[in-house]
Write a structure and sequence with these properties.
Elements (H helix, E strand, L loop, with lengths): L1 E7 L5 H18 L3 E10 L2 E8 L2 H19 L8 E6 L5
Antiparallel strand pairs: 1-3, 1-4, 2-3
Helix pairs in contact: 1-2
Protein name: ABM domain-containing protein
């Protein structure tokens, strides 16, 4: 399995960002081949984190590209700073 984690700082409206992600982005993630799981986390203080898990690297990489497009097209005013993106192979899980 592979995962992609995106950390967003400076979120201007966490509730609205969560609504848009849940209604618009989650369905996009479910369409990516090899989809396993997706989480959108409100870490507080204007920080939100997303975690996408896929069966292979290609799915994780596609999720990063789709996230960038979705943020640009739908969330730019709510997520004004580019995210820190980390991705790699899942080497332990529970």
């Amino acid at each position: 399995m592979y995962a992609a984690v995106r950390r967003y700082e400076g979120v201007t409206d966490a509730a609205e960002a969560a609504r848009l992600v849940n209604e618009g982005f989650v369905p996009l993630m479910r369409q990516v081949a090899g989809f396993v799981a997706y989480y959108w986390i409100d870490a507080g203080d204007g920080v939100m984190v997303s975690t996408s898990v896929f069966q292979d690297r290609a799915g994780a990489e596609e999720s990063v590209a789709r996230a960038a497009d979705f943020v640009r097209d739908n969330l730019a005013s709510l997520l004004p700073r580019p995210p820190e993106v980390l991705a790699g192979e899942v080497v332990a899980s529970a």
